[in-house]
Specification:
The chain is an alpha/beta fold and about 325 residues long. It is about 50% helix and about 10% strand. It has 3 domains: about 170 residues, P-loop containing nucleotide triphosphate hydrolases (Rossmann fold); about 35 residues, no CATH class; about 110 residues, Zinc Finger, Delta Prime, domain 3. The strands form 2 sheets. A 5-stranded parallel beta sheet has the order 2-5-6-1-7, sandwiched between helices. Strands 3-4 form a two-stranded antiparallel sheet. The protein binds zinc ion (ZN).
Length: about 325
């Protein structure tokens, strides 16, 4: 049975081996962007399929498979972060899985199954369970009704309550090795620089490429590489119109971290393609100023979410960035 992605073949084989003795609750744990959710869905589909092949692979043609594909399988529940309307009328993703959602899942597993077969509850990201929603689930996680499987997907499983963790069978899915992913990268038109930028998570690399973030990154880094004579007013005005807040934050923060790594004699982590520029800047930077700036940034990172002052935040950032190099050199 093929894994959903080439680098998942080992994890997939282990999952397939669990079909005979299903755990009550399975935790797929690992960094974001390695395909855990996709693997959880493919596995769920195969568990619900009414005529899986001898390897346990979903047939893709039975009624259950059709329902699953359409997102309407009555014995499958996908519990995730819900969209909510803010007071300003914007749609935002909730940051927690609510106790109401957890109670719905508890009710759901206590009904008899629609097809008199298995029932699957997929919870992701599981670290979004708060204390109330986690507590609401404890009892059914420990002793779920017959034929019920909980699949928890977590990007930060250490944040899960110990009571939840202890009830789950954990399968860790790590970052792929280079050799496992070369062909896939090539097929998707991605290079190793894109992969380094997202700390080695292939699906994250694909997402930033599809969102056009890689071009934006190039543009921002070209400007930041020349720390002298930055026109902070003009740049902030232009970037504010075209650069998403999230992208700005990622690019600027990772750049500072790489700069710090270089000035401490370490390795460039996120932007190896800009190593020469970073090393040059690091020689000109005052490490104390840089450290202060990074500390403030990690505390203030969320400001940039407000569109009203985003331009101001970017402008201030650029001014402070130039100051790291002030008085150094000639
Ligand atoms: Zn099927």
């Amino acid at each position: 049975m093929p894994a959903p992605y080439p680098w998942l073949s080992q994890s997939w084989t282990r999952l397939a081996g669990m079909r005979e003795r299903l755990p009550h609750a399975l935790l797929l744990a690992g960094p974001r962007g390695v395909g855990k959710l996709e693997m959880a869905k493919v596995w769920s589909k195969s568990l619900l399929c009414e005529q899986p092949d001898q390897n346990g692979e979903a047939c893709g043609v039975c009624e259950a498979c059709h329902w699953f594909e359409a997102g309407t399988h009555p014995d499958f529940m996908h519990m995730t972060l819900q969209e909510k309307e803010t007071r300003e009328g914007d749609i935002k993703l909730a940051t927690e899985i609510s106790v109401e959602q957890a109670r719905k899942a508890v009710d759901f597993v206590q009904l008899s199954t629609y097809r008199a077969g298995r029932r699957v509850v997929l919870i992701e990201p599981a670290e979004a369970l708060n204390t109330a929603s986690a507590n609401a689930l404890l009892k059914v996680l420990e002793e779920p009704p017959i034929n019920t499987v909980f699949i928890l997907v977590s990007h930060q499983f250490r944040q899960l309550l110990p009571t939840i963790l202890s009830r789950c069978h954990k399968l860790e899915v790590g970052l792929p090795e280079k050799a496992e992913i070369q062909a896939w990268l090539k097929e998707k038109g991605l290079d190793e620089e894109a992969l380094a930028w997202v700390s080695g998570a292939p699906l994250a690399a694909l997402a930033v490429q599809e969102e056009g973030d890689l071009e934006i990154r190039e543009e921002l880094l070209a400007a930041l590489s020349k720390a002298e004579n930055l026109d902070s007013v003009a740049l902030a005005e232009s970037w504010n119109r075209r650069v998403a807040a999230r992208t700005w934050h990622q690019v600027s923060y990772k750049w500072l971290l790489d700069l710090l790594a270089c000035s401490l004699g370490g390795k460039v982590g996120f932007n190896p393609d800009y190593e020469a520029a970073l090393k040059k800047l690091a020689r000109q930077a005052k490490t104390g100023n840089l450290l202060d700036f990074i500390r403030r940034e990690s505390e203030n990172g969320r400001w940039v979410d407000h569109p009203l002052n985003r331009q101001m935040v970017m402008e201030t950032w650029l001014i402070e960035y130039s100051r790291i190099f002030e008085g150094a050199g000639k």
